[in-house]
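Private note to self, pasted from the team thread so I don't lose it. Backbone tokens:
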């Protein structure tokens, strides 16, 4: 059963990532693009974790943790730049 569910979920998450890229390119203003980028990295994170479950490899989970930390720091930096105009106070 898991052999059918994991590829289906990978396909759905891939579709979600493609739609996030479309919103990132087409977004009407900067906050929409930042939100699309945040959603894109979360979708990529979910894809990597699901692929790690499928292959039963611990390396993918460590990569997912690294992407999560870098995505969080990037989102905070871009949000602070949009609010104040600079990142370092």
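Design output:
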């Amino acid at each position: 059963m898991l052999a059918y569910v994991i590829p289906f979920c990978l396909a759905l998450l891939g579709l979600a990532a493609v739609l996030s890229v479309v919103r990132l390119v087409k977004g009407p203003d900067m906050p929409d693009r930042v939100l699309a980028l945040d959603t894109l990295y979360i979708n990529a994170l979910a894809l990597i974790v699901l692929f790690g479950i499928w292959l039963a490899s611990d390396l993918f989970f460590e990569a997912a943790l690294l992407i999560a930390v870098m995505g969080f720091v990037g989102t905070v930096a871009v949000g602070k730049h949009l609010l104040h105009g600079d990142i370092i106070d």
